[in-house]
Amino acid sequence: MSKVFDRTFELHSSSIVEELREFLTKDVFVGEEVKEFGKLTGGLTNLLYKAKVGDKTVLVRINGVGTETIIDRDKEIEYMLLLGEHRLSAEIYAIYNNGYVYEFIEGEALSPEEMPLHAELIAKKVAEFHDAPITPKTGDKSPTVFKTIKRWLNDVKSFEYKGEKKEKMAKIDLNRLYKETEDLEQLLKNCEVGFCHNDLLSLNILYNKENNQINFIDYEYCGYNYRSFDIGNHFSEHAGFDLKFDRFPDHNQQKKFVSAYLEGRHAKKPSDEEVEKLVAEVGVFSNIANIFWGVWALSQAYHSEIDFDYLDYGGKKINWFYERKDELDRNYRKHNQ
């Protein structure tokens, strides 16, 4: 049972390390000694620490400033607890106003270059995740991606960027992006929906070489969505934060991944036609991921205090969407007459 605390930790407090260490030993794991405590790097949203407390290794997270405007934190906790019932997420030990303490899962986070080396294992794990019997409290299992993009776009339209950010934002046609989103929503409205991770970039995929297993972490964006978005977004994330687009899986790599995924879900080898049809669908959703994270970055550029050029990242993601759009849409229509 997770402990719940009405407490908020300040990101920039000069005593944040001391406060968190004391919190762990006095409130969360009462009387246990904090043997190790250190900051982790790599993410673009939150502040994260790793600690050894007694015989447990845990992670302590403080949510990034303004992230509650793009992430439903209550739903994140709800889904983590539900996934934990099926051993698909880390155990939560304590919840506080702007973060939580949770189980450290053994394994090494992959790099974008390493993801293809473990593609079959990742595909099978995605299949397991998609078939998890997760039912939200609201009972709402409708897909979220298009609703989320449109909500973020409306938020971004209302932001008053200043200086260089204002100049960069002036070059991005938000109304056109909104129209593209609506058109794609109509095109893909009948695609299969399931419970998805929605953020399968390399840092959220752990490989444990001791047992040759893959685990997913970071459940901020989990929820019901188009299953092909989850796979397509994973493909898109091969580019990494440095946006090396030539790392995107080639057609044969996509087919192998999709074939392993379908076999994982249905316990039989799929036909070539089934694979090609899903590859075409995943392709369009991989491009929708560029709108999704492109608009996310525009929002982060307004709120976040992390030292990262979100506007440059978002602009490049959106440009990549337009570069790939026509070819991917044609291929989808070809396989979905």
Automatic annotation (TrEMBL):
**Pathway in which the depicted protein is active:** Phospholipid metabolism; phosphatidylethanolamine biosynthesis; phosphatidylethanolamine from ethanolamine: step 1/3
Molecular function via GO: ethanolamine kinase activity
> What is its EC class?
transferase
Keywords linked to the UniProt accession:
Kinase, Transferase
Write down the superkingdom of origin: Eukaryota
InterPro entries reported in the protein's UniProt record: Kinase-like_dom_sf
Which Pfam families has this protein been placed in? Choline_kinase
The Gene Ontology biological process annotation of the record reads:
phosphatidylethanolamine biosynthetic process
* Sequence similarity: Belongs to the choline/ethanolamine kinase family.
What protein name is recorded for this chain?
A: ethanolamine kinase
Question: Lineage in the entry?
Answer: Eukaryota, Discoba, Heterolobosea, Tetramitia, Eutetramitia
